[in-house]
């Protein structure tokens, strides 16, 4: 019994580490912290929603699986070949037989390399197609959100979702899932080969599996949490940069550079600490798996070394030198996939954390949607009509109040700074007699009609010329009639100009069209000034055109 004390000691060490990790996990479960990420989505739901994007490419994934199984054959057969070679060298050395085994090993290695290359190419192409579809759906969904919803979501957060988080999910399809499946097949295949080769040694190796499963479960819990925190801190930093770099001029104007720098350093430090926690968790799991791997190798060599690598009996089965060599390679191939599982878990948890963020955006229902009885437009004529339109970004703060207007096809209606009227300009128009003073700044329909006309006429006429036109107009007809004439000639002028603009105009004809429109505008302006001078002379209002001294 004493000869097995070293093996029992190794098991006791693994048990102590397992107890420590289990206590740390229980302590973490008791710690109730308010999550600062978007939401919690179960892993099953994440996988189900991601599979929707992978199902259209099931043929490609089936081909990858077939290629992967071909490459796994090398992983399973190579230890047996090396064990056979070792026994040939030890028992009866025959160069011709040895050469055949080496040639077989080399052929299997070349086939495995070719399969691995083909698998990588197929996965990269398929992964990029899935990434493109996911980004397109996400961008389309963001476009469907209302202004109010978009105002509540920082721009930097949306940029992170579309650009960074989708990349993390792409790694799932191009790397993680296939490699995890490959490693799972290798582990099962190696386990089956070891059982057939020597079940007693295999049972000894399996004694380390419970510790491995426990480490993996605990590691998964911790990595999911730290990845969520890293994603949150990254989003916070990207949001801060997006908003503050676009508004850097305002920061400089109000001399707030130091305060913004402090905010940036605070968010950057939070991201650094989250990354350090991620590295710390990852840095514990892989050494623990490596410790189990080394322990199993030590136990194998201890049992084999008892008989100086002779035919040692263990649990009723004989261990030859070839068996020891094959098991050494099999143990490496058994634990190497599990060691890389740490990296794959790292990427998988990062992808799941990114998927939570992306699906939280997908789960936002657009507040503005078509009514169930909405009519699809088969043909668009190009006319625009507003009829008693009211609009507000915030409830009660109306931006548009009862707005009504009609714009014909190919007609342009502009509401911009060029036609705008400031309070100072309106006061000047009142002082110059162009507009009657409002009672307590309560403007009526007549004031609004004159202001609308002034907004267009001031692009061509001076204040004195507009005063001649409005004065004569008041003498000849009522304000309502004047406004009707204004709207009639404005619509006619806009329609004539719109008909001259042809979207099919050739590139070499556009300069001619621009020059023609500019010269006509100049000539019309000169004719307008001359006609106004004649109108002032005939109606006795020449004094209105003279500058006041």
- Rg (C-alpha, Å): 40 Å
- Average pLDDT confidence is 78
Succession of helices and strands: HHHHHHHHHHEEHEEHHHHH
Number of separate strands? 4
Helix-strand category:
mainly alpha
Name the CATH superfamily assignment of the largest domain.
Answer: ABC transporter type 1, transmembrane domain
Strands in their spatial order, largest beta sheet: 1-2
Number of domains: 2
State the distance separating the first and last CA atoms.
124 Å
Low-confidence stretches: 33-39
Strand fraction equals 5-15%
Compose a concise summary of this entry:
By secondary structure, the protein is mainly alpha-helical. Helix content is 73%, strand content 5%. It has two domains: 50-362, ABC transporter transmembrane region fold; 414-545, no CATH class.
Describe what you observe in this structure.
- By secondary structure, the chain is mostly helical.
- The chain has 2 domains: 50-362, ABC transporter type 1, transmembrane domain (ABC transporter transmembrane region fold), CATH 1.20.1560.10; 414-545, no CATH class.
- It has 16 helices and 4 strands.
- The strands form 2 sheets. It has a two-stranded antiparallel sheet with strand order 1-2.
- The longest helix has 50 residues, at 95-144.
